[in-house]
Amino acid sequence: MKIFRYFIAVLFIIIGILLVLANVGAVQFNLGNTWKLIYSIFFVVIGLKWLVDFLMKKGGSWVFGSFFLIFGSLLLLDWFHIIYFTFWDVFKLWPLLIVYIGVMLISGKSHIVIEHKGKRSGKTKEKKYGNSVFTVGSHEYNKENWKVQPMSLRTLAGDFYFDFTKAFIPEKNIPITVNSFAGDVNIIMPENVAFRVEASVNAGDIEVLGQTADGINRTLIYETDDYDDVERKIDFKIHLKAGSIRVDQV
């Protein structure tokens, strides 16, 4: 593939330049410490490739292209001891989400509804554009005796809080889907309600009743022992680009 050829070419060029500078005493360079340099350059090359493809209308993505370019550049600056930035400091780049949302608003390519924070009674006020629903804000389902119904929730950025110990849950299988670019999802389940969780996070962490997964591109699937045997149950499908998912039981 062309991108890997470009990556190898750029890698050889940079390593060669660093070796020359090391030989003349301008920098300190140790071949045993090249792993971070390699993946830093990889992110930069991937980011540049996606940006160029986007600008030339050959696919690509300006959002992910710019993100990987910035991320790789910061890692390179750390490698050169200019700043301190490690791989797991990627979470510090979350303000870029605000920048991306602002750019999309200016470009007019996305329809976004800004929602006020506040308690929800199980009813979400959303404005639909075509087949998509885009919101920014918090969603709380914790009013006494709120009725659980099938949900499909999509947000650009925002937090979700579900307290099913206060809910009225009908005797049936209820699917609940949450998709968000960035945010946190917190769920409290009663012990007498069966449920299944299929959770994935591109960057962040997942914790379901003590079972955890964190890092990059993580997935965790969990279901209670009685899930297949009962009629009343909840089926969660949760996907976040960045954030955290937590499910507790009381």
TrEMBL record:
Keywords (A to Z) from UniProt: Membrane, Transmembrane, Transmembrane helix
Listed InterPro entries: Cell_wall_LiaF, LiaF-like_C, LiaF_C, LiaF_TM
GO cellular component, one term: membrane
Membrane-traversing stretches: 7-31, 37-55, 62-87, 93-114
Pfam families in the cross-refs: LiaF-like_C, LiaF-TM
UniProt domain LiaF transmembrane: residue ranges: 7-111
Domain Cell wall-active antibiotics response LiaF-like C-terminal residues, every copy: 136-247
Protein name per its UniProtKB record: Cell wall-active antibiotics response LiaF-like C-terminal domain-containing protein
